[in-house]
Amino acid sequence: MFTKLINRELPAHVLFEDDSFFSFLDIHPMARGHALVVPKREEDYFFDLREDELSNILPFAKKVATAIEQVVECKRVGLSVVGLEVPHAHLHLIPINRVSDMQFGKAAIQMSDEDLSALADEIRSKIR
């Protein structure tokens, strides 16, 4: 599914991309600003990524997280790798104020497509 987003076969609120990685807002966010970072090369399990992908995904994610922090009020952006929801390695970047904000069993917050689009525009404007 993420490959279809990367290839623009499905719509996404894209935040940032380079030759190797792609970031977009989660459409079922745990918090306002919840984003995903995925390698463009499809790989199911995060720890099966190549060494260069593992070395470069965090600096890429840092750019996105830094931009999220500038837009969304939070104490920090939490990072999580779960890896069971979609068979494509990915990181969750979630604005948090307490540990309980990272509980994946809780219900997603509701955001309209228009709100997600505006938020993506704002976050994109902060990425350097």
Layout of strands and helices, then pairs:
Blueprint (H helix, E strand, L loop, with lengths): L1 H5 L7 E4 L3 E5 L9 E5 L11 H21 L4 E5 L10 E6 L16 H14 L2
Antiparallel strand pairs: 1-2, 2-3, 3-5, 4-5
User: How many helices does DSSP assign?
Assistant: 3
What low-confidence regions span 5 or more consecutive residues with pLDDT below 50?
A: none
Number of strands: 5
Query: Could you state the CATH homologous superfamily?
Result: HIT-like
Radius of gyration, rounded?
A: 14 Å
CATH class: Alpha Beta
- Count of domains: 1
- Global outline: globular
Strand order of the largest sheet: 1-2-3-5-4
Q: Classify the fold: give the CATH topology.
A: HIT family, subunit A
- Fraction in beta strands: 15-25%
Helix-and-strand structural type: alpha+beta
Taking the alpha carbons of the first and last residues, their distance comes to 27 Å
Q: Can you tell me the CATH architecture?
A: 2-Layer Sandwich
Portion of residues within helices: 25-40%
What letter string, H or E per element, gives the SSE order?
HEEEHEEH
Main sheet characteristics: 5 strands, antiparallel
Averaging pLDDT over every residue, what do you get?
A: 96
Fold and architecture overview:
The protein is an alpha+beta fold. It has a single domain, classed as HIT family, subunit A. It is built from 3 helices and 5 strands. It has helices spanning 2-6, 51-71, 113-126; strands spanning 14-17, 21-25, 35-39, 76-80, 91-96. A 5-stranded antiparallel β-sheet has the order 1-2-3-5-4. Strand 1 and strand 2 (21-25) form a beta hairpin. Helix 2 crosses helix 3 (113-126).
